[in-house]
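Example record

One chain of 349 residues, shown exactly as stored in the release files.
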Amino acid sequence: MIEIASTIAKIIFIFFLCLSSLPLCVWFERRGSAWIQGRKGPNRVGPFGLIQPVADAIKFFFKESFIPTNADKVLYLLAPLLALAAPVAAMISIPFGSYLLFENLGGNDQYKIPLQIVQSDSGILFVLAFAGLEIYPLILAGRASNNKYSILGALRGCSQLISYEIAMGLSILSMVVIYSTFEMNAMISYQQNHLWGVFINPIGALIFWVAGFAETNRLPFDLAEGDSEIVAGYHLEYGAMKFALFFMSEYVAMMMVSAFLVTLFFGGYALLPGMNFCIQYFSATQNTIAIFQFLSLFLKVAFFMFIFIWVRWTLPRFRFDQLMHLGWNILFPLSIINLLLMIVLGYLI
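Predicted structure tokens for this chain:
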């Protein structure tokens, strides 16, 4: 019963954390883009425009919800739900701390609650399995809308995701060679005892980072939503809360990719410099250490979320031929060469 209750509590915590972070991400993206472009951004609804995302959410709830006459209704409604469910489910294997320790719980003197929803020897495969579902909402939304612009956006998105998934998978495999495990806590332990993965395999980190932009359809890789060419892409025919689900899924996918990147290459929940001094100074307990670990992971993920926003308002969109050239002619062969180098390095280590 304790295990079931703790698992449910962790699921609720991760789901609430993802959804509650969305308004802040939207606000920061608007303020950040305004700052980069010399504008003021939202500054009317609440102090510094902080309540503007709440007003947007209310607008989405009360807007007219329609279904196109010629749409496939079942697939049309399924697509936005699957778009949000896939990145949220991918978070289940990402550890956000070591464990909490409770005394005299369930008849035990000490009871450990690991800060990870699913503990598995193949944790990376769980993340990749759910992250790989991201291609299906694009296909379903484009096909079910029965609109030529939606279909074009879906075709673009599918070819983009397939092209960059290969390079991303090879960069992940190069780190599996170094860590000799698929289990994420073991990867973090390795980085705590040796070096962060980014210092061991900087090329792999760069490939994963670039592919992460393509996998989340963020600029300069947002060809699936190229409004200057295909109006709005695969979700053209969606409005009200159905569009909001697609909108939310993009930010949750950014969080998932950032957390995965941090876990593989930047120590995961390993403490940031200076936190060990605080723990030793205050003689912190295991539960306090777990809080610092979660805070460390949160700050790292927040930094890469900032990078996502910064890049969006800095770089122009690629042409489609440039996007394919980068994926197949540059990242793909580079990821293969990097994998071979890591195999040699792993053998030497």
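Notes: The mean pLDDT is 88.
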